[in-house]
Design goal:
- The chain is of the alpha/beta class and 316 residues long.
- It folds into two domains: 2-94 and 285-305, NAD(P)-binding Rossmann-like Domain (Rossmann fold, 3-Layer(aba) Sandwich); 96-277, NAD(P)-binding Rossmann-like Domain (Rossmann fold), CATH 3.40.50.720.
- The protein has helices spanning 12-18, 31-37, 54-58, 78-83, 96-111, 114-122, 149-161, 175-180, 188-194, 214-219, 237-245, 267-271, 286-305; strands at 2-4, 23-24, 43-46, 65-68, 87-89, 141-145, 165-169, 183-185, 197-200, 224-228, 249-254, 275-277.
- Helix 4 links the parallel strand 4 (65-68) and strand 5.
- Helix 5 (96-111) packs across helix 7 (149-161).
- The protein is globular and about 60 Å long.
- The model has no long low-confidence stretch (mean pLDDT 96).
- Bound molecules: nicotinamide-adenine-dinucleotide.
- Nicotinamide-adenine-dinucleotide binds at residues 71, 96, 99, 145-151, 169-172, 201-205, 207-208, 229-231, 255-256, 280, 282-283.
């Protein structure tokens, strides 16, 4: 039996077209619910909010393949799967341009006062530009921390589209990509000192947790703009709030938060006027969702035909 979990209503038809017999569940399920509802599953196709724990794996006796429609797979107990010979596939790149585009959606929305302008006209019936002077992107220095799939796309859009000066820090520099996408590698310190806008595109690792902290903010220009579409824990929220209150930081645009599900804990940063927060939607667009499903379908089809799997998670 093939079971799809966490399916949005608008994606049901495309699953049914390819796998008419698949069981499709929209609501995210907890451990016990997965065990109960997917008991006969041979193939599970999940998203990141389905915790495929040791207990789940132990209690799904027929399970042979887990396909996660995501880059990350930390919601799956790899060791437990390995012990039972269960294969795991992910979708390593479902559209980095979509996340990169969201960076500019946040920047333009915040720096050109789009929501305030709309509110002014729609809610206050006032058609007046005063007080909404924006900040242009052209010729500003954009500092990218991390130049992987997403960082490179951001660099390309910034340099070729907005004619920004792009500098970047990555412990594994890719000089070819720098030439192609018109950016220059610098040290992290230099990036912190020179940037007008900093955008984060590194993974969350022990050495990137709180890479933006009190000390790094002190090194930045006054009026710095910070964008984070990577992971919330990369920024020390307390330091961000201090920087905003002192006006060292002028704007903060976040698609991710520290302890994302704890909105009460994040209330102050969310409510800060110069802060825009979106609910982890950078990945969520027509293109990326289409590719996410196509890649997942391809892994399932290959498995069913006994063919070599393309995106098998390494070591399994
Ligand atoms: P990637 O693996 O292609 O690139 C990550 C880059 O970060 C690599 O070049 C790596 O060398 C670099 N890096 C590692 N340690 C670093 C450090 N200490 N300082 C600076 N750079 C460092 O990943 P990607 O696809 O570009 O994604 C980047 C991150 O974006 C992911 O790890 C994920 O957390 C996040 N993400 C968010 C969304 C969203 O919807 N908001 C969607 C996808 C990915």
């Amino acid at each position: 039996m093939l079971v799809f979990l966490e399916v949005e209503p608008e994606d049901i038809a495309k699953i049914q077209k390819i796998f008419p017999k698949a069981q499709i569940i929209s609501k995210p399920l907890n451990e016990n619910e997965i065990i109960k509802k997917c008991h006969n599953a041979e193939i599970l196709c999940v998203f990141i909010y389905s915790q495929i724990t040791k207990k789940v794996i132990k209690n799904l006796p027929n399970l042979k393949l887990i396909v996660t429609r995501s880059v990350g797979y930390d919601h799956i107990d790899l060791n437990a799967a390995k012990e039972k010979g269960i294969k795991i596939c992910n979708v390593p790149d479902y559209g980095s341009h979509v996340i990169a585009e969201h960076v500019f959606a946040l920047l333009l929305c915040g720096l050109r006062h789009i929501s305030e302008g709309d509110d002014r006209v729609e809610k206050n019936h006032k058609f007046d530009f005063h007080g909404l002077r924006g900040m242009a992107l052209k010729a500003k220095t954009l500092g990218l921390i991390g130049t992987g799939k997403i960082g490179k796309n951001v660099a390309r859009i910034a340099s070729l589209g907005f004619l920004m000066n792009v500098i970047a820090y990555d412990p594994y520099p890719d000089e070819d990509a720098a030439r192609e996408n018109h950016f220059q590698y610098v040290s992290l310190d230099k990036l912190l000192q020179k940037s007008d806008i900093i955008s984060l595109h590194c993974p969350l690792l022990p050495n990137t947790k709180h890479i933006i902290n009190k000390k790094s903010i002190e090194k930045m220009k006054n009026g710095i703009v910070i964008v984070n579409t990577s992971r919330g824990e990369i920024i020390e929220t307390k330091a961000l709030l201090t920087g905003l209150k002192s006006k060292k930081i002028s704007h903060v645009f976040l698609d991710v938060l520290e302890h994302e599900k704890n909105l009460a804990e994040n209330k102050e940063i969310i409510n800060f006027p110069e802060v825009i927060v979106t609910p982890h939607i950078a990945f969520y667009a027509d293109d990326s969702m289409k590719k996410m499903y196509e890649e997942a379908f391809s892994s399932i089809k290959k498995f069913l035909k006994g063919e070599k799997l393309m995106h098998q998670v390494e070591g399994i």
